[in-house]
Amino acid sequence: MNRLVVVLLLAIAPLFAGFDFAPYQAYIDSVIPEVKFGLSVRSVSTGAELLNVNADEYFTPASTMKTLSTATALHFLPLDYAPQTKLRLIGNKQRNVFTGEVNVRGEGDPNISARYYTDPMLVLHAMADSIKSLGIDTIRGRVVLDTSFFTPPWKPEFWRSDFFDYYYGAEVTPLQFNDNCTVIRIKPGDAEGDPVRVTVVPDVGYVKVVNKLITKTAPRNKRGRKQKLKWNRALDPNEPVVTIEGEFDIESDSTQFVIPVRKAIGYFRAALLRAFRDRGLVLYEAPVPAGPVKRKTFTFSSAPLLSVMDEINQRSQNLHAETLFRNAAAYMYGVGSVENGKKLERRFLADMGLDSSGFEVFDGCGLAAKNKLKPSVETKMLAKMARHPKGEYYVNSFASPRIGSGSKRMQTLLYPWFTRFKTGYIAEVHGLAGYIFTMAGDTLSVAMYLNQTGKNKDADCKNTMDSVWIALVEWANNGYPSLLRMKDMWREGMGLKDFDDRLEYFSRRLMKTPYGLGKMGEGHIDAVESKPMVYLDSVDCVTYVEHVLAMANATSEDSLFNVLQRIRYVGGKIGYRTRKHYMIVDWVGEGKFARIMPVQGDTLMERTIAKKEFFKAKKMKYLVDGKPADDPKVQIRYLPYEKARSWAAETRSDTLKVLGVAFISKAEKYDASHTGFIVFKPGEAPRLRHASSQRKQVVDMALSDYLNSRKGKLPGITLFEFVKP
What we know:
The chain has 19 helices and 28 strands. By secondary structure, it is α+β, with helices and mostly antiparallel strands. The strands form 7 sheets. Strands 19, 20, 23, 24, 25, 26, 27 and 28 form an 8-stranded antiparallel β-sheet that branches. It has a 5-stranded antiparallel β-sheet with strand order 2-1-18-17-16. Strand 21 (623-624) and strand 22 (627-628) form a beta hairpin. Helix 3 packs parallel to helix 7 (318-333). The longest helix is centred in the middle third of the chain and has 19 residues, at 458-476. It is elongated and about 110 Å long.
């Protein structure tokens, strides 16, 4: 057993007693050995950390660092915030000629692009149209681009140099066009030896392609299979020039690739001037004359804050993240810089009561390898944001299985709506951070990391993380299939309005359900018995009554879970200590869903219920109002055995009636040993409908037959009626 497995065993065992992590430990050890693994799971409602695996150590987060950038922005920016681009005319108009300066101030709008619009030129055309709307078709002067909203450098520090050769490493500028990227499309030439045909999309006359790529017929090997021709592309480090060279198969259809555009401010200018030409605006570059001027301002905004956040957290768009990182800083401090962005994030963490040392920040998107975070602090931040006044918008901005960056993740998860997450990946780093929702109403914040993955395959790393995440989702919702069954049954019986009709119907619907003792617990909420909180694969006598009563009481299918928990727990507070363990003393005794029904001939017995011994078996103390207490002495109303036999032999009702019954335990330290429903039908003696440990299923039988079978083993019965909702 290697060091990783030992660490996992020590960290997990005391916290997730109901979550079997052993298979995942073995998988990590065998499939992706020698990695650094970190995991934190936290309850959003309580803030308590449920699981910590190396979660107080620093990890490189990759794109999960975007969760901090978007949280900070959402915290400080108004929901209607939208990045703007302002076009100002500073000068004078005579007839159709404007003389002066066309000033375009960029305030970090990342969506002047084909990402948000079908035509990336749409906003720029709108700018040209706005000028033309003033009756202008000629401009004499100059076009000035104001980039003071952000401070350079446009290429972030601490990124690997090769990142700037790919779309995800585009320059970060306050004026952006088409994600500061362009598409190069390639088709073979007409004949062998011809250069390939190249198209730049969108083509604004800025990006230059040096075409050394020649059309060739790909040779075939001895088996007749076509061999792959080699070609490559290379970007000039400083200029908007790309060189393509090599050989391209004449029988190929086409291909394309995306490149970041060097000197992106110049790219925006070229696109703007192209928009002017498209709209018939003629520009004569000339000095701007001195003298009094008039000013006219047009403001353009392509997408609001929440749309920008979707691009960041769902599609992991780096340029959007870096832009928003600076936009929020500029909104609060006047200038969008990396230092102001970091300063604002520290202020956000202070506002949230979090230790800023848990994050070491060098950019807004997570590409900098120097970024670090502690998974335990990440889950604290996520939990705080889930409770934030704007938390719903934050959580909904994350990806999920089959959506965004999660489109190919966790495909085997049966209930993908139970999770949202942010993915992260750079060399030797994988991350997942987000939320797992539970049918109990709580939400779990989760942060999971693999660092130092070495030669392990990326696919193996992703599959490992997905396997653990899926296990957490299913474990936190381990009763969900049963809840869906309850919902189906509830809908089938929703036409029944009378309470007794509903009790009879749902108790009958569960007939032949297998018997299984103690199959339910408190799920992820309490580790004492972390079994499902809803479970219908098998039932015992108590859980059979509880499920039936929940379906009969619920006013909607969505209320089923909460009704069941109010039936099972004192005050509906889920926990082993608050569970109604004793049928008569606790379950009926609470008086909210059932009450003792006096019967002629009944009597009282006094018993001391051994609650201290009961809780001691779970290494707990019996408490009352939070303090250790003595075993309670109680009086139990019951109908003695012989009188119960006589009572059960009689026909007692001319209408349908359903009661509850508790069979008194022969052991003095308990109140009851069994329970079920008594169903009265017109003209019939009462029948017992119960989960039978002897018959191993839910059965219906004459109450008298059951009582006769328990001679000498049963002091008597206690009858109770259910409180109508």
